[in-house]
DNA sequence: TCCACTTCCTTCGATGTCGAAGATAAAGGG
DNA sequence: CCCTTTATCTTCGACATCGAAGGAAGTGGA
């Protein structure tokens, strides 16, 4: 079962406020939405009538009458979201508040091309829906992250270096043809940033770094994901100063990614005679206090930090959140912090927080849910 | 005469659309505002009644009946705006569409402190109003740019390196006490960016560089000025790679400003035995094809370009506009362009335009008008 | 226990906005 | 020149939103 969400006008805003947890009573909705209390009551009545909201007991008093707590009906619908990686797809179903109902990871070679990959994805969605969701609960939207740039205007993948066969493929159209629902297609780092943003309420400007096998980055500006022309957020191919000279996959010399990514560290360790297979292995070495590994992670952190100084001065964010598998190595974030604090303007670092990412492994799925909800309630 | 603009609700939006030139008929307003044509008619009627709009002949037909052209009444009001520099203040009066009525430059030492400077400014405003504006035309708002960071929450100047005595001074409150009108206080580079933005219709993401005695920068993100925590846009104290080592006024080594600003070039020329007093002198030397000067400007452009690569990859703007007195030296922009195009991701430079600023010497005043209009019509 | 006070929520008349329909005014083609 | 087409603008009834007033349901202090 699939079905467009039947909301119009102010109903969407109210539903969104309940979904995101910003408000959970009529009075709270009135405060947050700016609508008059009377209007809120009317719209809420309609949303309850439509089966999208339910009244559930009463909340805690703020000094007067207790509010009647509102929450999304569990039957209001679900969202199907995924995050495509090079060899795996992480996918799941969320309720309309963005909370995961089920998440799983399936092997999936993105090099097999868009049709095969997206069909595998859709089949997995359909299976999960059949297994986990009563037929009466409709699917309301579909979204996926891809490991490459997405043109925000057309929702096509553009010049993806790691996705042969995907160039200019109309991902959104392909999914829409199957589901006829609001569809979201977004770069994976951007999704992660959007997901992370929900873990930092009140912070309007965030940089979210993903340091894993590669290096990704997304930016939240004034509370909204910054897309630019579709390529925004890249920092992996920034030139770093170095004595040596390494050629990056992108064709340039001395890219940050060629020095500070998990893949680069694995290669450097191999040269030092230490064999490691995955980025997690590097983290293990650091936790075992292997000096070479620790030193290399420190250097990587410093290099990332040096690039960040430029961006922190310019963008002046509230938070730099560092995630990705390599962020589990504690010296990484410490040395990023040291480089930024040493070199940035005091004004820019005065209230800046450089901290581990909070949203966890499902950050990208949560981000997809957050952005998709906006599309569903548009 | 001063007076808050008596607009409410949709009237403000409509007036703003006329003021910015986005629409000039009722039908155009309906298209741009999203309001129904009938509502537009009603509100426009009220605005004409209030003397803020006037009907002025008819516009050009788009295939049917000719629209009745609307424009702001010349008696609707004026804005008083200024841009404080280190030794001069540029100030003027604008009509509500943001067009300058009169602009002049007065000597003004910002080191004399906030009270003296702001009083000088206010006196100049009052004089211009008395001389140039009929008493029946009310002042609607006051705004100024300052050469230092401004906290967007409190509109106070914070830790300004070149404005001794101004730290934490409540500039906005001081002006509001005298005028009791909407007041704008903003960093000068940000004002320039806002002014430049109006010269690039349709472009939503801009970086605006001001290369003069110092180096300033402002960013327009999704059509709005990005403030961050008040320090956004700074690129002058980014570290550049260099053989030598120069100490900047900020206390760090090898800041961009210490290598690529007009002041740095004047110092470097002096070392080469060539005496120049102002940045304009450097431009003259370049235009006279003095090889040392040309070479130095090229190097400065390349250094600026190298810093820009990081920001262009990350921010992915539509336009980088280069202004400031040194931008008149043609090799500057050429070498910036070369550095950015050589090193940035193709996706980021695909539709990127790196061009001379269009807004001219009054850019900051125009920007102040643009931002102030938003405050006046809020 | 009673009562003043706060907060939550609804009722009701006034006002704003909408869309459909029609009046007005011009362009363009036979 | 007339008629069709297109666009602009206004009129009018339906609906949404607002604010004020008041009822409902709590809290906290005398």
Automatic annotation (TrEMBL), chains A, B:
Gene3D superfamilies: 3.30.420.40, Winged helix-like DNA-binding domain superfamily/Winged helix DNA-binding domain. It comes from the Bacteria. It holds the Pfam family ROK. Belongs to the ROK (NagC/XylR) family. PANTHER family: GLUCOKINASE (PTHR18964:SF173), ROK (REPRESSOR, ORF, KINASE) FAMILY (PTHR18964). This is ROK family protein.
């Amino acid at each position: 079962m699939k079905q467009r969400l039947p909301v119009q006008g102010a109903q969407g805003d109210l539903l969104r406020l309940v979904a995101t947890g910003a408000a959970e009573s009529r009075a709270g909705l009135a405060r947050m939405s700016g609508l008059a209390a009377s209007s809120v009551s009317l719209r809420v009545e309609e949303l309850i009538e439509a089966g999208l909201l339910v009244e559930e007991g009463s909340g805690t008093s703020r000094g007067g009458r207790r509010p009647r707590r509102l929450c999304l009906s569990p039957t209001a619908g679900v969202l199907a979201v995924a995050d495509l990686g090079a060899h795996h797809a992480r996918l799941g179903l969320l309720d309309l508040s963005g909370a995961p109902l089920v998440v799983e990871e399936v092997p999936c070679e993105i090099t097999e091309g868009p049709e095969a990959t997206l069909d595998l994805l859709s089949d997995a969605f359909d299976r999960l829906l059949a297994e986990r969701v009563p037929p009466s609960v409709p699917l309301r939207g579909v979204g996926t992250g891809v490991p490459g740039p997405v043109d925000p205007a057309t929702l096509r993948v553009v010049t993806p270096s790691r996705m042969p066969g995907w160039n200019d493929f109309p991902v959104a159209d392909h999914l829409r043809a199957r589901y006829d629902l609001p569809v979201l297609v977004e770069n994976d780092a951007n999704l992660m940033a959007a997901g992370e943003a929900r873990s930092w309420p009140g912070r309007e400007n965030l940089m979210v770094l993903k340091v894993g096998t590669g290096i990704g980055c997304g930016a939240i500006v004034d509370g909204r994901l910054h897309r630019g022309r579709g390529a925004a957020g890249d920092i992996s191919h920034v030139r770093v100063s170095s004595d040596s000279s390494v050629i990056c996959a992108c064709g340039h010399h001395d890219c940050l990614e060629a020095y500070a990514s998990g893949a680069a560290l694995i290669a450097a360790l191999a040269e030092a005679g230490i064999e490691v297979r995955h980025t997690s292995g590097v983290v293990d070495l650091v936790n075992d206090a292997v000096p070479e590994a620790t030193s290399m992670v420190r250097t990587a952190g410093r290099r990332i930090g040096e690039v960040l100084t430029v961006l922190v001065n310019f963008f002046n964010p509230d938070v730099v959140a560092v995630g990705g598998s390599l962020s589990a190595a504690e010296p990484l974030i410490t040395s990023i912090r040291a480089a930024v604090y040493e070199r940035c303007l005091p004004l820019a670092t005065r209230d800046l927080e450089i901290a581990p990412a909070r949203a966890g492994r499902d950050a990208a799925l949560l981000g997809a849910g957050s952005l998709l909800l906006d599309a569903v309630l548009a």
